[in-house]
Amino acid sequence: MADINFNEMTRPSGDAPAESRSVADPHPPRWDIVELLFFAYRDFVGDADHVLEAFGFGRAHHRVVHFVCRYPGLTVADLLDVLRITKQSLSRVLKQLLDEGYIVQKAGDSDRRQRLLFATAKGEALVEKLARLQTERIDRALRDLPPAGAEAVGKFLRAMIDRDDPDKVLQTILHGASAKDVT
């Protein structure tokens, strides 16, 4: 990968640095945070991407098996809400995870049309492996912070989430209920 020297890069015409603007912008872009989030996300998911490649899976597979594992009995409809994707987008990924034995699907007890999803032992093992990789990165990042640092990071991340959508999985996460209490 090529090294990029940001100090020597030229800015597009008309894009003067914030400190040289003549009129103070009351809400200038937070380039520092925007770019740090970009790189943090890239590397956070990159750890899992390398493992997923060996299985012929991508990030969509990771998200599906993660939420199915964490919230056993999640309905297909709720999974669509969590992921904010279309049925068509979910269909291919879910079919592959079902066909390869990472997830099983069962009819609902009260409504037989409902499709409830559960991770198999194989799916749970994959989610655990990926979560451990990502947890190592999180632990390294939190290591040098003061004790309140992890709490501040969590508060910041919760504040970044749109709350307009009453997603029951998100509400469970935000309110600290057990993942098993969602179903």
Automatic annotation (TrEMBL):
<protein>
    <submittedName>
        <fullName>MarR family transcriptional regulator</fullName>
    </submittedName>
</protein>
<keyword id="KW-0238">DNA-binding</keyword>
<feature type="domain" description="HTH marR-type">
    <location>
        <begin position="30"/>
        <end position="162"/>
    </location>
</feature>
<dbReference type="InterPro" id="IPR039422">
    <property type="entry name" value="MarR/SlyA-like"/>
</dbReference>
<keyword id="KW-0804">Transcription</keyword>
<dbReference type="InterPro" id="IPR023187">
    <property type="entry name" value="Tscrpt_reg_MarR-type_CS"/>
</dbReference>
<dbReference type="Pfam" id="PF12802">
    <property type="entry name" value="MarR_2"/>
</dbReference>
<keyword id="KW-0805">Transcription regulation</keyword>
<dbReference type="InterPro" id="IPR036388">
    <property type="entry name" value="WH-like_DNA-bd_sf"/>
</dbReference>
<dbReference type="GO" id="GO:0003700">
    <property type="term" value="F:DNA-binding transcription factor activity"/>
</dbReference>
<dbReference type="GO" id="GO:0006950">
    <property type="term" value="P:response to stress"/>
</dbReference>
<dbReference type="GO" id="GO:0003677">
    <property type="term" value="F:DNA binding"/>
</dbReference>
<feature type="region of interest" description="Disordered">
    <location>
        <begin position="1"/>
        <end position="24"/>
    </location>
</feature>
<dbReference type="InterPro" id="IPR000835">
    <property type="entry name" value="HTH_MarR-typ"/>
</dbReference>
<dbReference type="InterPro" id="IPR036390">
    <property type="entry name" value="WH_DNA-bd_sf"/>
</dbReference>
